[in-house]
Amino acid sequence: MRESTFEKQDMDVYLCIDGGGTKTNVTISGRSRDTPDEVQILGKGTNQSSNYTGMQITQSYHEDGTTMDFEAQPELKTALKPAPFTKIWAGLSGMDGRSDYDILYKHLSHLFGLPSTDQVTLKLTNDCDLLSSQIQLIHSQSDRPCKGGIVMIAGTGSIATAFRFDSSSILQSLGRIGGHGYLLGDHGSAYYVGLITIQEILSFFDRRHLSSSSSPITTTTTTTTAQLSLIDHINLYNQLISTSSLITPILNHFKIDKLDDLMSKIYMNTNDQARKIAISSISRIVMEAAFNEKQQDKFALQILERTAIKLSELVYEMILIYNLNPEGLVLCLGGGMWSIYPGFKELVLGIMKNQFDVSWGWVSIVDLPDRIGAISLASSS
């Protein structure tokens, strides 16, 4: 058996994987056995999405059981023996239930040359759990009591998980809301921003085809509440979109010349992952327009306000379910939506405060969950 470089250096090495819907980040940390209090970052890397629900996984049923074949990843069939890591933490999006856990644990343990019965070296969780390390850090350093926290990821997808410290100051997961994927949920995510932006533009385009008039729709004394709500929505978005700066950059994003081609362009892409990323990427265009200091785009801002409400509802539902007091909690924010423009965080926190009367003890944006996870692994071993 070949001795690893780390073994020669008498060093314990830790690997943390943050597998998101758009990209995968990894960090390797190390701790010398001679100076165990010093944690070093030894390396980091980035690759494409590792959400296994988007990979080409085929399931074959046989009389003697079920076998899983990672067709898109033939390199998984050859294990790396031995992997030089003392502990590994893989936080992967799409890892939602026991069946997901069993599938992924089998292949990851094989990849790292670990026995499938080893539940100590390899820790496998949803990517949301990686951010809980920040809650533990604040709990250990704050001069105020920290009771736990809520991790909210708003990236390509969206999910929230609640955590609480038990009587032994061990952080326990209470449960999660969201994480249902772009087909069933992901409200408040980058995908959601792109989706409702496209929907509103296509609806506006349809209305312009049906009517040459640009005048607002009028109401009468017999207009019902439901009718009034729809009329207000149509009038608002007709005005916002007609003066919006978003149309041209979105056409450029999809490499088309006119709105007539937008829907067909989206459906022509039969690769689900590529189509999801193309729609999610519109969030950057929307944020740039909404937070433009010279000329704020009101249509873009309206889209982000709707998005912020969805995220606030996600968290507030968690607060109600578990009877949490947010003033004693950390709100940990992860995912690309928070790192693009700081104004989005302020928008969400403002809606939480003004519409849901929620104020937090601490608010922390975690840009590199894999780094925090790698440090946490090394520090707690």
* Alpha-beta content class: alpha/beta
Order of helices and strands: HEEEEEEHEHEEEHHHHHHHEHHEH
CATH topology of the largest domain: Nucleotidyltransferase, domain 5
Assign the CATH architecture of the largest domain: 2-Layer Sandwich
User: In what order do the strands lie side by side in the largest sheet?
Assistant: 3-2-1-6-7
Query: How many strands?
Result: 12
User: How much of the residues is beta strand, in percent?
Assistant: 15-25%
CATH class of the largest domain: Alpha Beta
Q: What's the average pLDDT?
A: 82
Q: What is the CA-based Rg, rounded?
A: 24 Å
Helix and strand topology:
Blueprint (H helix, E strand, L loop, with lengths): L4 H4 L2 E9 L3 E10 L6 E10 L8 E6 L2 E6 L16 E6 L5 H14 L10 E4 L6 H10 L6 E7 L3 E8 L5 E8 L11 H21 L14 H18 L4 H7 L8 H7 L3 H9 L1 H9 L7 H25 L6 E6 L1 H5 L1 H15 L5 E4 L3 H12 L1
Parallel strand pairs: 1-6, 6-7, 8-11, 11-12
Antiparallel strand pairs: 1-2, 2-3, 4-5, 8-9, 9-10
Organism: Puccinia striiformis
Protein name: N-acetylglucosamine kinase
Defining key terms:
381 residues; alpha/beta; Nucleotidyltransferase, domain 5; 3 domains; five-stranded mixed sheet; 13 helices; globular; disordered N terminus
